[in-house]
Backbone:
């Protein structure tokens, strides 16, 4: 079974912020947590569906939901982009990791805006029977046998709105997929984005940024300890570990 992708662990200290933090900053952190959880839900649903698409005869039950999750993931990454820019502006500048992450999100923003426009025009497109109403294609890599270094690539494509689903290639070898799904890319409107790569960079930004935040919080707790009786060691122990990076794709 493939391990779920996690950005912020359930026991992370980020989910138990101390009372000495400003309410506005706490609200921003809560939004980052919510956005990260939504991203993880979408990508784990995509990975799960791709496993079934690789081995099941009745693939249509999973194909349409997979594309819906792909577009939902793009929308959630756009939401994270908005809070990331707001956070960096509030903190007085954009660090190199944040700037690189924002630059890498350009294609996600383009796809999100194009699909919003597509949704606004969906009735006109369907009525005109346009042949340009392609919703996208998904490509991924999987290992049929975890003991072999060879991998196989797969692709599926959701076709015209009025013409049903077109699937040029889905598991041409017919082999049951045992190993992990990885290197998932999504293409539409002439752009291609790599889902797992951007999620890893989001996780990296959270980890490095909030490691520094934790240091600042610790200093505040020490300053307040004599007044409010807050014990730094006991607080962090009860809040859980700062385990932020858990992108394991092993079976």
Residues:
């Amino acid at each position: 079974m493939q391990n779920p992708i996690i950005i912020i662990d359930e026991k992370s200290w980020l989910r138990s912020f101390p009372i000495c933090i400003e309410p506005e900053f706490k609200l921003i952190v809560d939004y980052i947590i919510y956005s990260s959880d939504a991203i993880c839900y979408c990508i784990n649903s995509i990975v799960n569906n791709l496993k079934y698409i690789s081995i099941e005869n009745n693939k249509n039950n999973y194909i349409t939901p997979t594309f819906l999750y792909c577009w939902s993931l793009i929308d959630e990454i756009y939401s994270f982009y908005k809070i990331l820019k707001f956070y960096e502006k509030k903190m007085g500048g954009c660090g190199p990791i944040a700037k690189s992450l924002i630059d890498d999100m350009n294609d996600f923003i383009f796809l999100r805006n194009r699909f919003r426009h597509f949704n606004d025009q969906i009735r006109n497109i369907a009525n005109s029977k346009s042949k340009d109403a392609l919703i996208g294609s998904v490509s991924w890599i999987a290992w049929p046998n975890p003991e072999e270094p060879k991998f196989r690539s797969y692709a599926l494509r959701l076709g015209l709105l009025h013409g049903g689903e077109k699937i040029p290639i889905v598991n041409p070898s017919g082999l049951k997929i045992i190993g992990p799904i990885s290197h998932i890319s999504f293409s539409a409107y002439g752009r291609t984005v790599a889902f797992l790569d951007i999620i890893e960079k989001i996780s990296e930004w959270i980890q490095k940024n909030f490691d520094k935040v934790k240091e600042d919080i610790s200093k505040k707790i020490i300053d307040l300890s004599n007044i409010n009786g807050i014990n730094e060691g006991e607080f962090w122990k009860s809040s859980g570990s700062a385990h932020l990076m858990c992108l394991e794709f092993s079976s």
User: Anything to note?
Assistant: Residues 13-131+194-239 form one domain. The chain is about 55% helix and 10% strand. Helices lie at 23-55, 60-90, 96-104, 106-120, 122-128, 195-228, 232-239.
